[in-house]
Amino acid sequence: MARPDPADVARVTCVGAGVIGGGWAAHFLARGYDVTVWDPAPDAEPRLRRLVEAAWPALTQLGLAPGADPARLKVAPTLEEACAEAEFVQESAPEKLELKRDLLARLDAATPPGVVVASSTSGYPMTDMQTTAADPGRLVVGHPFNPPYLIPLVEVVGGERTDPEAVAWAARFYEAAGKSVLTMDRELPGFVANRLQEALWREALHMVANGEATVRDIDASITEGPGLRWAFMGPCLTFALAGGEGGMAHMLDHFGESLKSPWTRLEAPELDRKLYDGMVDGCAEAAAGRSHADLVAERDQGVIDVLRATGRLPEPPRRSAG
């Protein structure tokens, strides 16, 4: 089977129907694809359909592609049936290296020749995952952000045995599917965005572990502070503006010595029971009685509002007065 043009793909297979895999399925449905899903869990299908149903209002606000319809979702009984006619495969299995290796080898065997298979892994290099596949050249990383149906970014990178054309094809496909693509030149553990948010996460854990700040304090410090700038301008350009007309050069000249100040502790703290309970209890307090569904809806609407406010999502058409 010849690899189709990325813009001509009509049938997508999602393997894994958890939060990430189900989010991918919702995204592809909203973009007008026929989506087939396989997941070995006995309750996978009802959970998946609930996720798609919950995501659909947000997807409708984002704008549905012609033909977008949750009815185009099919749940296959076997991996082989799910992949038989796939034109692109998105794997979203749990983050266990041996599981990923075995599953990618099975996907390679079950999917028509040439079809690109992408992994949603959040940290493993493809080089480590493609070791047992017969055709590792078509295996790439397509790392999304949660929820995949809402956050535009996907990081694309191949492994040592990946065909560069497969990486280029995957990047073009994701762009055609409405994603914002960061194509990496080389493998980096954790990729780009995860490494940045992991640094912030570790520092947050240290502050909670040491009693220096609460979960509520930490979240508010971002949502009411730098997060407002990061919604449309990254940390590097933000710091460049801190240098005034002198830009980044002036900022580094002025603040460079502070890089040696003891502001951060990037090694992760020990996740003991006290810290574990502190994070869990702190998040429950911050939720203030809101259910998981309430928080998901609030998050989805918040991202849509930010995208719209920063000009990355057009205003919905106004209804004419009847």
Describe the structure.
The protein is α/β, with parallel strands linked by helices and 322 residues long. The protein folds into two domains: 6-183, Rossmann fold; 193-289, N-(1-d-carboxylethyl)-l-norvaline Dehydrogenase, domain 2 (Orthogonal Bundle), CATH 1.10.1040.10. The chain is built from 13 helices and eight strands. The chain has helices at residues 19-30, 44-62, 79-83, 97-110, 126-129, 164-176, 193-209, 215-223, 226-230, 235-242, 247-255, 273-287, 292-309; strands spanning 11-15, 34-38, 73-75, 88-91, 117-119, 139-144, 153-158, 180-183. Strands 3-2-1-4-5-6-7-8 form an eight-stranded mixed sheet, with helices on both faces. Helix 6 links the parallel strand 7 (153-158) and strand 8 (180-183). The longest helix has 19 residues, at 44-62. It is globular and about 55 Å long.
Secondary structure layout:
Elements lengths: L10 E5 L3 H12 L3 E5 L5 H19 L10 E3 L3 H5 L4 E4 L5 H14 L6 E3 L6 H4 L9 E6 L8 E6 L5 H13 L3 E4 L9 H17 L5 H9 L2 H5 L4 H8 L4 H9 L17 H15 L4 H18 L13
Parallel strand pairs: 1-2, 1-4, 2-3, 4-5, 5-6, 7-8
Antiparallel strand pairs: 6-7
Helix pairs in contact: 1-2, 2-13, 10-11
The separation of the N and C termini measures 52 Å
Mind telling me the CATH class of the largest domain?
A: Alpha Beta
Task: Give the overall form.
Answer: globular
Low-confidence stretches: none
Oligomer: single chain
Question: The CATH topology of the largest domain, please?
Answer: Rossmann fold
Largest sheet: 8 strands, mixed
Strand order, largest beta sheet? 3-2-1-4-5-6-7-8
Measured by DSSP, the beta-strand proportion falls in 5-15%
Rg value? 21 Å
Q: Give the CATH architecture of the largest domain.
A: 3-Layer(aba) Sandwich
Structural class: alpha/beta
Helical coverage, percent range: 40-55%
